[in-house]
Amino acid sequence: xxxxxxxxxxxxxxxxxxxxxxxxxxxxxxxxxxxxxxxxxxxxxxxxxxxxxxxxxxxxxxxxxxxxxxxxxxxxxxxxxxxxxxxxxxxxxxxxxxxxxxxxxxxxxxxxxxxxxxxxxxxxxxxxxxxxxxxxxxxxxxxxxxxxxxxxxxxxxxxxxxxxxxxxxxxxxxxxxxxxxxxxxxxxxxxxxxxxxxxxxxxxxxxxxxxxxxxxxxxxxxxxxxxxxxxxxxxxxxxxxxxxxxxxxxxxxxxxxxxxxxxxxxxxxxxxxxxxxxxxxxxxxxxxxxxxxxxxxxxxxxxxxxxxxxxxxxxxxxxxxxxxxxxxxxxxxxxxxxxxxxxxxxxxxxxxxxxxxxxxxxxxxxxxxxxxxxxxxxxxxxxxxxxxxxxxxxxxxxxxxxx
Length: 403
Ligand code: ADP
Ligand code: ASP
Ligand code: MG
What we know:
- The strands form 4 sheets. The protein has an 8-stranded mixed β-sheet, sandwiched between helices.
- Helix 1 packs across helix 3, helix 2 runs antiparallel to helix 3 (about 65-85) and helix 10 crosses helix 11.
- It has 11 helices and 20 strands.
- By secondary structure, the protein is an alpha/beta fold.
- The chain has helices at about 15-30, 45-55, 65-85, 120-125, 155-165, 195-205, 215-220, 275-285, 315-330, 355-365, 390-400, and strands at about 1-10, 35-40, 90-95, 100-105, 115, 130-135, 135-140, 145, 170-175, 195, 225-230, 240, 255-260, 260-270, 295, 300-310, 330-335, 340-345, 370-375, 380-385.
- About 35% of the residues lie in helices and about 25% in strands.
- Adenosine-5'-diphosphate (ADP) binds near residues 173, 174 and 178.
């Protein structure tokens, strides 16, 4: 018998009617002769509400307690869905992340999955039941409840699909697939029939939040085919799988944007070997993930070094730079969180020159100043003012004729 993992995101299970609609779909899949393991997110905006509630209650929020709190959202959905399935005559059984055998490291709020001990799920399947697993959570090697970072239910689903050897992992959401850009910003964005793991990974890493980055990395490493599709229309969506070398590659596949970046500039750094090394070692030692880096041409023997980091790491990055000022003999630190990164992604860039030129011309014509640039073989990213991000996405989407 074939096996699929079906993951339902927050909007897909947002209220009682939605949970019943999902139960109906799971029941149909079973009746068609396919075994199903279900992974659910918290209902609607529950996780956001819990985050706000914690902030209202206290300014001291230990990560362990945040994980206890946030993991409760998915538990609500899993038990309600099992009840809805029971009413349809489908034998179903809910499992927390811990019960489902999702073993993680000990890093609260962004734990990594180390191992999946899926024997309880296998036993449930063998007994003819549908296991319904709470997404986004696991249990650490210290036996503490952990969560996998926002959007982490996608990762739960892919990890289970890999561990159980499922034929596919279906990610049901509120759009009908992966589009050339966020369809909420550009309504004429086009649904892609398929995307390679490599491109999807770049999209997820640069703000295309339809799939969590870790889930795509996991799928790529374990060769799990992903099918991103709508839980409202149930129509076929987008397949994310291995690149097909026989297919003609689009030069640009998608445009993404990310408002969660921040920029830090260290001014007046003497132009001597070893100082950049000290700066970035200091950041690395505090687990800060640096993305773009620009070092200006030195004037009178000093230079400015600018770099981008996730906005969430801005405070710690500024603190590290301030602390290093005497050692670097630099003059100051400027931090700026009013920036956005827009990115163009496409496997075809490897072989087509001219993408960079058209990107810069398009942004220039739209009156958008580029502050920093970074590239990989299949991506170009530009750092711009946050307020111009949506205009930049629209202009680039049109210039590369993605509609
Ligand atoms: P879920 O709760 O189902 O996990 P998410 O909100 O995490 O859903 O992801 C779906 C959302 O991703 C869509 O509503 C859409 O606005 C956004 N999105 C961003 N970029 C894209 C893209 N390129 N294609 C499709 N959706 C995208
Ligand atoms: N409920 C979690 C979140 O909102 C996990 C998820 O939905 O994937 O981030
Ligand atoms: Mg999501």
